[in-house]
Amino acid sequence: MELTTDPRVNEVFKNYPKAVKSRMLHLRDLVLSTASETDGVEKLEETLKWGEPSYVTKFGSALRMDWKAKTPDQFAMYFKCTSKLVPTFKAVYKDKFNFEKNRAIVFNLNEKIPEAELKQCIAMALTYHKIKHLPLLGA
């Protein structure tokens, strides 16, 4: 998989508070490893959307991640709210994640992330336009 990174992304990660930075970098690592393991993801662009680290593929739906000072004990992974992604995640993983409407999976800073399940969600986002016709996006 070919990765292109906007240098401004590293500045965003560098500026997170220390306790948050490691959690955000862990999310980033999960996105990158999932992209490299997912069939059909040949190129991944790491960029900024709305000042937040964002990941884009040719056949995927953009996903973003961020921590906000107004909710200091949480961080989140955001998905296009008009897609079937978060409604599908809610149906499949209702007991594994906390959700914000149809736009995000929200994590508490002190919780262990269910990595296998999150990687499946990430893979669905990275290949969304190839799987959006499948029941439960093929989950």
Could you describe the 3D structure shown?
- With 139 residues, the chain is an alpha+beta fold.
- It has a single domain, classed as Alpha-Beta Complex (Aspartate Aminotransferase, domain 1), CATH 3.90.1150.200.
- It is 38% helix and 25% strand.
- It has helices at residues 7-14, 18-37, 85-93, 115-126, 128-131, and strands at residues 2-5, 43-49, 52-56, 63-67, 74-79, 98-100, 104-108.
- A 7-stranded mixed β-sheet has the order 1-2-3-4-5-7-6.
- Strand 6 and strand 7 form a beta hairpin.
- Helix 2 (18-37) packs across helix 4.
- The longest helix is centred in the first third of the chain and has 20 residues, at 18-37.
- The radius of gyration is 14 Å and the shape is globular.
- 32% of the residues are buried.
Report, as a whole number of angstroms, the end-to-end distance. 23 Å
Highest-level CATH class: Alpha Beta
Shape: globular
Order of H and E elements = EHHEEEEHEEHH
- Which structural class do the helices and strands define? alpha+beta
Mean pLDDT: 96
Give the spatial strand order of the biggest sheet: 1-2-3-4-5-7-6
